Amino acid sequence: MRITEHRILGDEKRERVEIFVDGAPVEAYIGEPILAALVGADINACRVSAKLREKRGCYCGIGRCGECRMVVDGERDVRTCTALVERAGQRIETQWD
Ligand code: FES
């Protein structure tokens, strides 16, 4: 569930769009971190570690650890906690390391 109104969010109205995560439509807002849209959709896995053979997701949330790396519009290793939703129809995919 998303919190859409809160005093720390301000009064600015954001543009709601649809992005695609592993082919499934997900609600997102222009300018929010991609990871925020994923969490809002109860998606917690960003990549699968080949070494550990397990799903990995948000750890630091500030662009340092790399656990949230995904494939964004065909580009690998995008840190989704700091990369922003830019437009409708963005394609986000689980990254297999
Ligand atoms: S969660 Fe650590 S870089 Fe994104």
Describe this structure in words.
There is one protein chain. The protein has one helix spanning 34-40; strands at residues 16-21, 24-29, 47-49, 54-56, 69-72, 75-79, 91-93, 95-96. It is mostly beta strands and 97 residues long. The chain has a single domain, classed as Ubiquitin-like (UB roll) (Roll). The strands form two sheets. A five-stranded mixed sheet has the order 2-1-7-5-6, with helices on one face. Strand 5 and strand 6 form a beta hairpin. The chain is globular. The model has no long low-confidence stretch (mean pLDDT 94). It binds FE2/S2 (inorganic) cluster (FES). FE2/S2 (inorganic) cluster binds at residues 58-61, 63-68, 79, 81.
What secondary-structure arrangement, pairings included, does this model have?
Blueprint: E1 16-21, E2 24-29, H1 34-40, E3 47-49, E4 54-56, E5 69-72, E6 75-79, E7 91-93, E8 95-96
Parallel strand pairs: 1-7, 3-8
Antiparallel strand pairs: 1-2, 3-4, 5-6, 5-7
Q: How would you spell out the order of helices and strands?
A: EEHEEEEEE
For the record, give the distance between the C-alpha atoms at the N and C termini, rounded to a whole number: 30 Å
CATH fold-level assignment: Ubiquitin-like (UB roll)
**Total number of helices:** 1
CATH class: Alpha Beta
Q: Percent helix among the residues?
A: under 10%
Largest sheet: 5 strands, mixed
Task: Flag low-confidence runs.
Answer: none
Shape: globular
Mean pLDDT: 94
Which architecture does the CATH hierarchy give at level 2? Roll
Name the CATH homologous superfamily: 2Fe-2S iron-sulphur cluster binding domain, sarcosine oxidase, alpha subunit, N-terminal domain
Strand content: 25-35%
What is the total tally of β strands? 8
Which structural class is indicated by helix and strand composition? mainly beta
| Tally of separate domains | 1
Please compute the radius of gyration using only Cα atoms: 13 Å
The hetero compounds bound to this protein are: FE2/S2 (inorganic) cluster
